[in-house]
Design brief:
Blueprint: H1 9-27, E1 35-39, H2 66-79, E2 86-90, H3 100-109, E3 113-118, H4 125-133, E4 136-142, H5 147-154, H6 159-173, E5 178-185, H7 193-201, E6 207-212, H8 229-242, E7 249-252, H9 259-262, E8 279-282, E9 287-289, E10 303-304, H10 310-316, H11 337-340, E11 348-349, E12 354-355
Helix pairs in contact: 2-3
Length: 364
């Protein structure tokens, strides 16, 4: 298959060796916080069948107050060079917080660079303008298929039209740096990839992020939605073929080591799980963790911003993300472990100490 990255196999292998060396000898010893995720709320106005954190199925327990979040932002500004830090706002649905714009206007006034993930249903022309004035420049909107499927998957009638309205309001505003649509591909919508490409590209977006459903959260209760080996191959072949076909770039997400043939062919970078080395997060209740997609287990919580200084936690904890504890079970003698290091933490099975999803044997 022709390379769309312009890189040969030997060059990729050389690059991956360099990345593995950097991960082991530099990054794990001196991690660098590049992305700070803040989960503003666990509330959501949708009830997606795949949600990794089961948003909307529980009542929030002791959420952070407006002032606590602002005080935390003050602390981050004192402790880090925020010109090199990306603030990522997420939920649930972040716009459900009544103080959303109070918080984000404050973040903007303090010089934070921020973007957001959203389902888009609460965005109209007025909200788009308020987001711009609050400093938001990038956003990822979830759109999981054509209308009938999207509303089945998200379990909210009328959600497709509201999401499309939100995307159009952002595009028509004309001043945002990056508007991305993210789609979760499952066994039930993989046959619509070509139709989705045509429909989404007509919205005027320039980036379509296509990811596979993960065996986490609610998706573990619906194994019929997971992809087969044949469907994984079809998905990556589609992304590779369509990546630069038109004005809308198609790319894969950050998850999973794809093997030398597909690395750099479906996204701009080589696989490296950023959890705990480039990425840190704060949950809606103040708990400090790595990536918010990782299973929420007590032993993975590194502290809480109500009692711990984030910088101290970042510099002195997160050990589980900076060691080779996953070199066990099926990963112990795997020759690809040097490149994947156990693959994505969010799909790691901490009870059985093995990956819930590994694409070895499927793509490579």
């Amino acid at each position: 298959m022709v390379s769309n990255s312009g890189l040969g196999l030997s060059t990729k292998l050389e690059h991956m060796e360099q990345l593995a060396e950097y991960r082991e000898n530099t990054l794990r010893k001196s991690p660098e916080l590049r992305s700070l995720f803040i989960e503003l709320t666990g509330k959501c106005n949708e009830n997606c069948r795949h949600c990794g954190s089961n948003c909307g199925d529980y009542e929030e327990q002791n959420p952070l107050s407006t002032q606590e979040i602002m005080d935390f932002l003050d602390q981050i500004k004192r402790d880090f060079d925020i010109s090199k830090l990306r603030l990522c706002i997420t939920g649930g649905e972040p716009l459900l917080r009544k103080d959303f714009f109070e918080i984000m206007n404050y973040a903007h006034s303090q010089g934070f660079i921020w973007g957001m993930t959203s389902n888009g249903t609460l965005i109209d022309d007025e909200v788009a303008e308020k987001l711009y004035l609050a400093g938001m420049r990038t956003i990822s909107i979830s759109l999981d298929g054509l209308k009938e499927y999207h509303e089945w998957f998200r379990r909210r009638r009328g959600s497709y039209d509201r999401t499309v309205r939100g995307i159009r309001a952002l595009v028509d505003h004309g001043n945002f740096m990056h508007i991305q649509v993210t789609t979760v591909v499952t066994h039930r919508n993989i046959g619509d990839l070509e139709a989705m490409y045509e429909e989404f590209s007509a919205l005027g977006i320039r980036s379509w992020r296509v990811i596979n459903i993960e065996p986490i959260g609610r998706a573990k209760e619906q194994p019929d939605l997971l992809l087969s080996a044949k469907e994984y191959k079809h998905l990556f072949a589609f992304i590779r073929k369509m990546r630069f076909k038109g004005k809308m770039e198609v790319s894969y997400g950050c998850s999973h080591y794809l093997g030398p043939e597909y690395e750099r062919e479906v996204r701009k970078w080589y696989f490296l799980c950023n959890a705990g080395v480039y990425v840190g997060s704060v949950m809606y209740n103040g708990d400090i963790t790595a990536c918010l997609d990782i299973e929420r287990r007590p032993e993975l919580v590194q502290g809480n911003i109500r009692k711990d200084r984030f910088k101290t936690v970042w510099e002195n904890k997160f050990e589980i993300y900076r060691t080779d504890f996953r070199k066990t079970g099926p990963c112990r003698n795997c020759e690809d472990y040097r490149f994947c290091a156990g693959d994505a933490y969010h799909s790691w099975n901490f009870d059985e100490m093995k990956p819930n999803l590994c694409l070895k044997g499927v793509l490579f």
